[in-house]
Amino acid sequence: MCTVTFLPGKNGFQLAMNRDESRTRARALPAALHLRDGLGLLQPREPGGGTWISANFHGAVFTLLNAYAVAYVPPAPSSSRGTVIPSICTLADPAAVDARLRQDSQRALPPFRLVGFFAHAGEVMEWLWDGDGLKAQAHPWKPGQWSSSAFDEKRAGVERRILFEAALPGLLGDSGISLSPLHRSHLPERGPWSVCMHREDARTVSLTEVRVDAETVRMTYVDGPPCRTAPGAELVLTRER
To answer: Is the pLDDT of residue 37 over 90?
Structure first.
């Protein structure tokens, strides 16, 4: 369960992602600088090493959402969707990601949506694994939002989209504005539809914000419900020129 908000800007973009999880799930490791194949990455991680969001020094950011509307159940034992992003997180363009994903078998994975944001190419690409195959969809380079919810995915998407569209004029009017207030919001009320989500069995457990500009890739991480938790220190990568 997650909400991802994307706002393109001059020479880059900003992005925010709330992660919603069961109250019984193990706590993740906060965002940190990691090296893979000698390349710098900014990402939080599951204790087992998987992740749901990653930014690399190319200015590419990857986000992973569960695809609850898809009925596919993988053959047991299933693997973790958290392994998807580590397999492609050092890549710089959509074609390379597509090729890598198609080399790997997702057969043992539950359904997922992978959304990649590529600063170099000015492209947004989404991949859906639905048990039948991997389907790719290009999105325009313009403000957008993606949501998932095990509770009621369709309604959650509609309610959060209403808030996003209401906030959009203010977001577009100030290049320095943060997406954090939107992702801390309890509108229309504190509960399953708010971007900062609260239910008896699950809640928003973190907020990750990423800013990509001509020079840097920056990430801040809120390790807890963003409505009442302060962000940690900002992490910075020098962007490849």
So the answer is: no
Question: Tokens in use for 210?
Answer: 């990423």
Query: Positive or negative CA dihedral for 144, 131, 102, 39?
Result: positive
Fold of the domain built from segment(s) 2-238: Penicillin V Acylase; Chain A (3.60.60)
Mean pLDDT, the chain, integer: 92
For 37, counting Cβ atoms within 10 Å of its Cβ (0-12 exposed, 13-18 middle, 19+ buried), the class is exposed
Q: Which residue has the higher pLDDT, 25 or 145?
A: 145
| Contact of 63 with 127, CB cutoff 8 Å | no
d(CA 187, CA 213): 30
Any alpha helices (H) in the chain, and if so which ranges?
Answer: 84-88, 94-103, 153-172, 180-183
Distance of alpha carbon 17 from alpha carbon 34, whole angstroms:
19
Q: What is the pLDDT of residues 84-97, one digit of tens each?
A: 999 999 999 999 99
- Rounded to the nearest 5°, which phi and psi values hold at 103? -75, -30
Contacts of 163 (CB under 8 A, 6+ apart): 182, 185, 187, 188, 195
Pair of tokens at residue 11: 């020479």
Who contacts 157 (Cβ-Cβ below 8 Å, separation ≥6)?
147, 149
SS3 (DSSP) at 196? coil
Cα 52 from Cα 50, distance rounded (Å) = 7
Give the integer Cα–Cα distance in Å for 67 and 216.
31
How does pLDDT run across 64-79, given as a tens digit for each residue? 999 888 888 888 767 8
